User: Fold AMP-binding protein from Amycolatopsis iheyensis.
Amino acid sequence: MMFVDYLDRGSGIDPQAPCMIAPDGTVLMTHEEFTSVSHRVAVALLADGLQPGDRVSVLSPNDAHAFACIVGVIRAGGIWTAAHATHAVDALVDFLGAAGCTRMIYHGSLAEHAGTIVDRLATLRTTVSIGPGRPGDPELTAWMAPEGARAPMRPVDSSENMLFAGTGGTTGKPKILPINNRQAHLMYVALTAHAPEPEPPRYLIATPMAHAGGSFAFPVLGQGGSVILHREVVPEDILTSIERNRATRLFLPAADLYDLLDHPSVRDHDYSSLRHFLLSASPVAPERLAEAVAVFGPVMAQFYSQSEAPLTCTVLTPRDIAEAVAPGGDRGRLASCGRPTIVARVEIIDDDGNVLPPGQPGEIAVRSDLVFSGYWENPEATAETRRPHGWHGTGDIGVRDEAGFFYVVDRKRDMIIVGGHNVFSSEVEAFLHTFPDVKDCAVIGLPDEKQGEAVTAVVEPKAGKTLDVEAILRACEERLGPVKAPKSILVRELPRSTVGKVLKRELRDEYWAAGARKV
Assistant:
């Protein structure tokens, strides 16, 4: 089943049903209108000479026409090159250049960025604006094919690439990661199976559509549901919109969940419509997850994945989480990323690819058609992810318990070595999250002449709160012991990616460059 077949199936459930909805409840597009725009964009791209596999960027904040353009690109046989509208222009040029992007549809609010990209990217041959854009660029409504135009159906080929994503920008120059129709189909099957809803979902998106926020949106459309479009995470707006629009589904990274929970009006709204509050992209502190259940109800769900095996490797379901927070429940399970979904086999392996027994830490590895075929024109980087016996190595250190639940202990590169002892930053971070005035934290290793590395905590306090650093250090020493306890705490705002991940690499680079050997 091809990506567009899935969406066309959803559109056919009720063509007049809302497809794209504004935060104030205005219906921006019905399913019929959305499908029509996608066809008109596809026909215009084909008339422009688009060939199968040509890369086309849709550079836009969350927008109804931009979503339809994405579908139009794929419908025409192109590859959607998923550039983040919030990225710096240098990063956009690097990514689009590495992907070999030939066309760009951009939102008029990003005309300045678009101009810089055009000036620096020789491969671009066509640029179109959604709304008024750069002088000389056609506007989408005038450029796309006339009303009623229909793109020809493409042959069914599940190996055909439909998306080029970047690696996230936290590890240097971008690596281009192709996603094909088979992977998309498996993601949607897993989401439908593990986050079922009796009626067409109403999904609130507030994170960039070029990342997980968009990935969670398309399965909703495939079920005849609707997408409530927010362009950024503003806590009061999100909380109000859930109630006003009767949202049934929401996705946010951990940091944005924390902002919602810390908002003064978080308990003043009606969240009874919610069926699934989806979490992904970064681990959630167990204490905050329990707090979220108390506020939003037994609707929290956490998916574990990575771009190379996208979206749905494991899931900690609402039932799993609700049972853990219930009286007598196993609160430790809130630290789990769940059990494998129906589309993936997940195990803990050693360096030789052997499956390890429960309780023994090793690398989290995946076998599935969900796993990517390899980085675009980068076989060396691809080889680094391959493990014996066909396993894909995630680079995460984890452990599985007797009940089959997986726990991410650390990234391999984030493990701290103190006097020959392995210290997993996640264990220290979990304890720091128990302090009520801590909003978020990151634990890193900085050079130490005697021990090799010193455990260092970078802590971001909640708004208006002051941390008693000495008291926290003493508590860590008592609870974690002298090896694992931080030797120092740095209080500051944490650097984050556009999808809310804490950038530990930036922290390490910053403090090492600043002479952190004296820490």
